[in-house]
Structures are given as C-alpha cells and as structure tokens.
C-alpha cells in the first residue's frame, strides 16, 4: 500500500466567544424570546480588484482554462457567504459559460483568490469575475463555552487528494447547542484566502465532545502547495 505524504502547516483558531452565524448565512425568523431591535444590518461591500484568464497543465497533454483574481471584502462587516461567478466569453463577446463558487468566511479587508475552471465548449477569449451574493454573518457572538481542544491540517502531496482539517471541540457551557459549525479556512503565504469548508454537528449537548474530520475541496489542486496556514472559526 502506498503511504500518502503529508505537508505540515500551522493553524490558528478564532473562537473568543465563537463567531456565530446561521448555517445558511441568510436572515432567519426570530424565535420570539428577544425584544425587537431597530439596529440596521451591517453594510456589505465587496470589490473584484483583478480577474485574469489562466491555464494549467493536466495529465495526458491536456490543459485547463480558468479565471482567477482577487475578491476583497471592502466593508466593515464580516461576511459569512461570498459567491462569485466566473463568466467566459468568445472573441465576439458571446457568453460561453458561467460557473459559481463561494467561500464561507471573509473578514473585513481580507482578499479571496478564487479559481474557477471553464466547463463549456468553444474557444475562450476573455473572462470576468462577478460577485453574485455577499451576506454578513446573520447572528451575534455565540455564547462562550465552545472550546477547541485540538486541531490539525493534513495536506497530502498526491495530485488528486484534498487537504483535511481535523479537530476536537468540547461544549463546556451549561446549554445544548442546536447547530455548531467549524468553518475551515486555508490561507496562502501572502495572507489571501484560498478555499473554505464547513464541518457541523447538531444537538451538541452540554459536556459533550465532538471530533470532526473535514475535507476542503480545491478547484485547483496545484494550489495545495500555496497553503501557508489555516484558521478554524467556530459558529453557532
């Protein structure tokens, strides 16, 4: 059996009370236990500062065409969802294909580098990145008591194997948590966000521990070599 080679990286944890949001990052109805608030939702703003058409070599003398670039959170709100579309055009400006991708945590000032492959037919002349949705985290800071006891990232050097983030969380509060999420962020050496993933558990009881092992899918497997660190953001 061939043993997979692993690359070592350093991780950080964002838990201080645990940043919290909904599982879908959309507004949810109030449960009726809190008084109404006149507070306005935070203003959301994102900017595509760069978009380029690139290719990478595949097996069998094949190539992949993709659009990549820089998407920055230019607002003061921490975003729980940012979705973009990679749009590909021919030389006449005719749209050939449009493909979506998203990340699930983008801090103010943070930059995301998406890689979106071309899935259509026909010769691509140029492409663009368009932000199709951006939503602030829709809940307030979660109650204290969610403790990340341990964590690690495994990055196989196999071409097709994806990185995995592992961890153990304990509920040291006196209350059950309906849904607890571990939002997993891979960070490049330049500080930009590459890809994200989410592990979650429902009905997380007081005093219980949860072990998670979550794969993070990379649209560009070559970018695994760019990972310089990772971050785990617990939300509830």
From TrEMBL:
Stretch list, region Disordered: 19-47
InterPro entries: FxLYD_dom
Biased composition (Acidic residues): 24-42
Protein name per its UniProtKB record: FxLYD domain-containing protein
